[in-house]
Amino acid sequence: MSDHKEAKSFSRFGYIMVAAGAAIGLGNIWKFPYLAYGDGGGAFVLIYIVICILLGHPIVQAEQAVGRRGRASAAASYGVIHPKWRFVGVINIVCTFLIDIYYLVVSGWVLKYFVTYVVSGDFGKDKQAYFDNYISSTTQPLIHSLVIIAIIVFFLFFGITNIVEKASKVIMPMLAVLLLVCGIYALIVVPGAVDGLKYYFVPDFSKFGMQQFADACMQVCFSVGIGWGIFTTLGASMDKDANLKADAWWVDICDTFIALLAGFVIIPTVVGTGSEMSSGPSLVFVAMTQIFETLPGGRMIGIFFFASLIFAVISTFFTILEIPRMYVQEKTHTSHQVSLIITAALVYIGSILCSLSKGVLSWLKLPWPSFQGIAYYDIYDWCDCLSGYVLLPLGVLLTCFYIVKAWGFKEYEKELTNNGKHGKLSMYDKLSLAVICPVLTLIVILHVFGFI
């Protein structure tokens, strides 16, 4: 949608499914497990759930309210109350654009594994080496990313995204069932999986520090989808009678459930098999291929699993590509189709640099300023760090300031509760936006620059 006139309205169930579809994706199934695995297992999971409640829910409902009040793009919606606050939405858009870039790279990896399962199902004896060799190659990842972005552009260009959205309503629950079955199977057949389950669910804070806390806060922003402009954009299409507070809870619950389920499959298997896997982007790809290799009919299950991930990727991209696209259309005064092509082209060009930074451009390191000294990251990791540990929490922080200072609790309450129809704004709601959420996001930002 380019403005409020083009916005489509959703039923309550339809909105929750679309919002969950936008939020549920690689953040839950790919990123959450490797962070939980490397950041202490149960301690990370417990802190993550707490932060989902403290940070995720209040910001989802706040962004929905901003979007429904503004009925426009992420930037324009923030400018409805006070034009000078439009920059908050612009920061969200810049953040989403950077995430789009490396999200497309990982989406290409998903397509590669799906294709391999269809063609042969053979990932060799050393699954880690297979992954490393693939992502460091020059052409293959670029081709797979190009196919993904072409599919997304095709659906958005012709306005037929409802096809994937309808399919996702069936496929995503099936993916959840598949994850549950794989997790139970692993507990039965993997001798040490119970120890892995203990590592995953029993908190041990002996190795949990500020970095792990910052990772948990970042992952809530990334996985739930706050600070991107996702819920501001979707909120613009919400009915005036929609219960924003209840819908926000459903989105949070669905998103967190899938993330926890993905970790339930991956971590007990990795720990139980004694695999020498390092926590990182490869964990899910390596672990799942090992699991499916031992399952009866594992190749077919692998096909379905990665096909489901592709649907999750595409349904997420329908929203997160539209966020910068709407801004491009607004600034260039072009049509939906032209702005879509421009945005997709820019995202793909950026993804080329990110992908090559794992191979031929691995020598190119970008500086990261820190109070503890300059660090150097490749392009992929630099984009990940800037978007995840600076722009996401900054967008959330500024949304809090926007609600408290620019909009005011009285007017915000009217929009959030539909003039009292859906309850009132409690003292906790006010404390959350004025103190709790700002403190959590400031901790992340100060930590990534080495101040704490």
Secondary-structure element order, N to C: HHHHHHHHHHHHHHHHEEHHH
Compute the number of strand runs: 2
Q: What is the makeup of the main sheet?
A: 2 strands, antiparallel
Mean pLDDT: 87
Widest sheet: strand ordering = 1-2
CA radius of gyration: 21 Å
Helix content: over 70%
Relative strand content? under 5%
Number of DSSP helical runs: 19
**What form results from the Cα inertia axes?**
globular
Unreliable runs: 1-9
In short:
This protein is an all-alpha fold and 452 residues long. Helix 4 packs antiparallel against helix 5.
Structure characterization notes:
- It is a single chain.
- The protein is an all-alpha fold.
- Helices cover 75% and strands 1% of the residues.
- The chain is built from 19 helices and 2 strands.
- Strands 1-2 form a two-stranded antiparallel ribbon.
- Helix 3 runs antiparallel to helix 12, helix 5 packs antiparallel against helix 14 and helix 5 runs antiparallel to helix 17.
- The radius of gyration is 21 Å and the shape is globular.
